[in-house]
Amino acid sequence: MKKILVTGGLGYIGSHTVVELQSAGYDVVVIDNLDNSTEEVKERIVSISGRSIDLVIGDVNDQTIMNRIFKEYDFYGVVHFAAYKAVGESVDNPIKYYENNVSGLITLLGAMERHGVQNLIFSSSCTVYGIAEDLPVTEDTPIKSAESPYGTTKIIGEEIIQDYAKHKNIKTILLRYFNPVGAHPSAQIGELPNGVPSNLVPYITQTAAGIREQLVIHGNDYNTSDGTCIRDYIHVVDLAKAHVKAMTFADKMTSSVDIFNVGTGDGSTVLEVVQAFEERCNMRLNYRIGPRRDGDVEQIFADTQKINDVLQWQTEYDLHDMMYHAWMWQKSISRK
Ligand code: NAD
Ligand code: UFG
Question: Which of 84, 150, 203, 233 is catalytic?
Answer without folding.
Answer: 150
